[in-house]
Amino acid sequence: MTLPDLSLEGHPSHLLHVPPAAAGTRLDAYLAQTLPDLSRSRAQQLIREGQVRVQGRAVKASHKVAPGEEITVTLPKPQPPSVEAERIPLEVVYEDADLLVINKPRGMVTHPAPGSPAGTLVNAVLAHCTDLSGIGGELRPGIVHRLDKDTSGLLVVAKHDTAHLHLARQIQARTAQRRYLALLYGDLRPDRREVDAPIGRHPTDRKRMAVTSLHSRPARTTFAVQERFGDFTLVEAHLHTGRTHQIRVHAAYIGHPVVGDPVYGQRLSRRQAPRHDPALQALLEDLHGQALHAHSLTFTHPRTSEALHFQVPPPEEMQRLLQYLRGRSPP
Predict the structure, then answer these.
(1) What is the tens place of the pLDDT at every residue in 16-53?
(2) Coil, strand, or helix at residue 154?
C-alpha cells in the first residue's frame, strides 16, 4: 500500500483555472476548497502577502472568482523558527514521521510568550526534532493546541503543515477527543453536570476569563463524577468547545473550583478548604497549581486514518493527594 504524500514540499506554486460551478465564490473560500492542504486563514494570509495572483494581479480575499480566471498560488518556503532549541527532558508518548504526542509536565509553558521566552515545550521539542510545522508561526511551530502552564497531560505536536491542518480540523470539529481529570472542591451533584455558559474576557481583569454575556463565545463543558470524597469530587471533564481556561472558569462558575487553582474561585477555595488536617494541607500545597490533568487524547492519524488513543495517569503530586483522600475515614 502506498501512503499519500502529505507534504507540500516540492510544490511551491499552484496554477488553477476556475470552473463554471465555482463562479461567485470568494477567493479565500475557493482556495481552501480547491487546495485541501490550505486552510482559509492561511489562504487569506497568502493573499495579503501578495502570494496569490488572479489573471496576474493582486486582489483581495473577498474577490469573487469568475469562470476561466487563472489563479496562481505561490507557497513560500517555510522559514526556520527563531525560537532556540533547549535540551529539556520530554516524556514522548508516541512519535512517527508526522507527529508527536507528549505528556506535558505541570509548570511548563506550551510556547514562548511575554514573560516566558525560554524553557517552554516548544523549546524542548525543537531540540528533540527540527522538522515542525510552521503554521503556528515562529513562536508556535508544530503547536496544534495548548495546555495552561500548570495543567499537565497530553497534547499533539505536528511535524509538518499538512499534519497540522488535519489535526487542527479534527480539534475544531470535535472529532478529536480531549478529556481531563479534575479534582473539584465540594460534593458535585448530580453525577453528570453539563455547564452551558458563554465565556469571554473578564470585564475588569483582562488577564482572566469569565462567564459573561459581553464579547463572549458559546462554551459547554460536561463534568462526569468519577469519585466522591465528601468535601472533594474527582470528575472527568469533556470539552464541547475550546475556550481559554474553559474547565477552570466553568468549575468556579458552578461553585466547585478546581483544587489548587490560583486564579479562579480563590475565595471559594479558601472557604471550602478543610481545616485541622495538616497532612491534607501539605498535600494541597504540594500541588503548586490546579489539580487538572489532560489524561485522555483520541484522534485520527492524518496520514493513515488510523484511530489513535492515548491515556496517561495524573502527575505524582495529584496521585498522592487522591490516594490520601481515598484512605480517609468517611466525613
Answers:
(1) 999 998 899 999 989 988 876 677 888 898 999 899 99
(2) strand
Torsion of CA 330, 238, 106, 308, to 10 degrees: 120
For residues 85-121, one letter each, b for 16 or more C-beta atoms within 10 angstroms of the residue's C-beta and e for the rest, the string is: eeebebeebeeeebbbbbbbebebbbbbeeeeeeebb
The class (CATH top level) of 13-74 is alpha beta
pTM of the model: 0.73
* 3.30.70.1350, 3.30.2350.10, 3.40.50.2000, 3.20.20.220: CATH of 92-173: 3.30.2350.10
Q: Which CATH number fits domain 179-295+316-327: 3.30.2350.10, 3.40.470.10, 1.20.1260.10, 3.40.50.300?
A: 3.30.2350.10
Instruction: Report domain extents, the chain.
Output: 13-74, 92-173, 179-295+316-327
Beta pairing partners, 232: 185
Distance, CA of 91 to CA of 313 (rounded, Å): 13
Write the secondary structure of 119-150 as one string of H (helix), E (strand) and C (coil).
CCHHHHHHHHCCCCCCCCCCCCCCECCCCCCC
Q: Which DSSP letter does residue 303 get? A: T
CB contact at 8 A, 236 and 261: no
Residue 7 scores a pLDDT above 60: no
C-alpha cell at 57: 494581479
Give the chain's largest Cα–Cα span.
Answer: 78
End-to-end CA distance of the chain: 60
Whose grid coordinates read 511551491? 12
For strands 99-104 and 70-74, give the pairing: unpaired
Among candidate residues 148, 150, 161, 261, the one labeled active-site is 148
148 catalytic, yes or no?
A: yes
Rounded to 10 degrees, the C-alpha dihedral 135/136/138/139 comes to -170
pLDDT at 115 over 80: no
Q: Where are the alpha helices (DSSP H) in the chain?
A: 27-34, 40-48, 121-128, 161-173, 246-253, 266-272, 278-285, 316-327
